[in-house]
Amino acid sequence: MRTITNNSPPNLENFPLEMQGDLFAMQTMSIEELLEIARVQVSEEQENEHLQLLEKNQNGEITDVEKFKLRDLRLAADQIMLLKAYAWAVLSWRGYSVPKLEDLSEV
Predict the structure, then answer these.
(1) Cβ-count burial of 10 within 10 angstroms (0-12 exposed, 13-18 middle, 19+ buried)?
(2) 3-state class (DSSP) for residue 90
(3) Cα–Cα distances in angstroms (integers) from residue 77 to residues 1, 21, 22, 34, 89, in the given order
(4) pLDDT value of residue 97
(5) Pair 83, 40: CB distance under 8 Å
(6) Is pLDDT larger for residue 58 or for residue 97?
């Protein structure tokens, strides 16, 4: 939170290098564009497939192809989470009131 109190945009150095360009571009997006990113959800289909593959993996029934798919689904979910977190950080930096964690599902 130090960057917010110093009136500078959220620091990108802790984010994956391959995402830093997209995150940097978010610093100039409109509030509406940032809120759209902050509200993105993993599709129900992807979530269900992820859960099924996690269960197969836990039971030792997963194939090599499914392991790659599980990895890809996890990486996609992680990227969405990072984009959402950065969108909220930029919104906060701009003085937008960020909801409490327990209220985020309603936003």
Answers:
(1) buried
(2) helix
(3) 24, 19, 16, 18, 18
(4) 85
(5) yes
(6) 58
Say if CB 10 and CB 3 are below 8 A apart: yes
Render pLDDT for 26-85 as a digit per residue (tens, 0 to 9): 999 999 999 999 999 999 999 999 999 999 999 999 999 999 999 999 999 999 999 999
User: In this structure, are residues 90 and 26 in contact, taking their beta carbons and an 8 Å threshold?
Assistant: yes
**If we measure between CA atoms, which residue out of 12, 15, 3, 13 comes closest to residue 79?**
15
- The single-letter code of the amino acid at 11 is N
Q: Which amino acid, one-letter code, is at 35?
A: L
Give the C-alpha distances (Å, rounded to integers) separating 65 from 9, 32, 61, 84.
Answer: 40, 39, 12, 29
At 104, the amino acid letter reads L
